[in-house]
Amino acid sequence: MDNHVVISGCSGGGKSTLIEALHRRGHAVVEEPGRRIVREEMEGTGAALPWVDLSAFARRAIAMALDDRKNASAVDGWVFFDRGLIDAAAALQHASGQPAVTQLGRHHRYHPRVFFAPPWPELFVSDDERPHDLSESMAEYQRLLTAYAALGYEIDILPRAGVEQRADYILARLAED
After folding, report:
1. Which end of the chain is more exposed for a tag (fewer CB within 10 A), N or C?
2. Cα separation of 50 and 41, whole Å?
3. Gap between the Cα atoms of 73 and 77, Å rounded
4. CA-CA-CA-CA torsion for 92, 117, 120, 104, nearest 10 degrees?
5. CA distances (Å), origin 45, targets 115, 135, 174
6. How far is residue 176 from each of residues 9, 170, 171, measured CA to CA in Å?
7. Shortest CA distance to 67 belongs to which of 91, 31, 117, 92?
């Protein structure tokens, strides 16, 4: 979908804060599947937490991302996704070795430009929903860059700037497309 825009990149790079800023500006947004799953799992058995069973977590994230895309299909205007299907498929591929990125990524497209939040150590914070460290986040960032590039997406690295400047940057770049 050409109006479905993914913001991906490094954990702790300011993606969720940026999504909130875009929402305040009146744009439709979709919260990161991983955060929603972690909250649900922490209230339940915890069997599909990413640090317990990454494959189970990734499969749930894929299903949720597919539902998110379906639910957003009727929305006019930009829809900004805090991560998305390719991120979930890359997690499954990393955990299981299954070629999930290629299989899912070719059939379920987003806007051709994907915005990446680069590693930003000064912003990185671990929390109960994200207990991994910066080095793990940076390794994930590299996997995601590779996955999106392999699918032919144009990767646009966000500047290290304030959240409002980043939102301005995204909207300006999309206006050029």
Report:
1. C
2. 10
3. 10
4. 10
5. 34, 28, 41
6. 22, 10, 9
7. 31
d(CA 12, CA 19): 13
Tokens at 173, concatenated:
């770049």
Name the pairing type of β-strands 4-9 and 113-117: parallel
The rounded average pLDDT for each run of 10 residues, N- to C-terminus, in the chain (177 residues) is 90 88 97 88 83 86 93 93 93 86 83 91 62 76 94 95 96 93
* Residue 12 identity (one-letter amino acid): G
Q: What is the DSSP string of the chain?
A: -TTEEEEEE-TTSSHHHHHHHHHHTT-EEE--HHHHHHHHHHHS--TT-TTT-HHHHHHHHHHHHHHHHHHHTT--S-EEEES-HHHHHHHHHHHH---HHHHHHHHS---SEEEEE---TTT---BTTB---HHHHHHHHHHHHHHHHHTTPEEEEPPS--HHHHHHHHHHHHHH-
Domain residues for 117?
4-176
The contacts of residue 143 (CB under 8 Å, 6+ apart) are 90, 94
State which amino acid sits at residue 53.
D
When divided into structural domains, the chain yields a total of 1
Provide CB contacts within 8 A for 133, sequence distance 6+: 126
CATH number, domain with residue 167? 3.40.50.300
Please name the residue that has the structure tokens 């497309």: 177
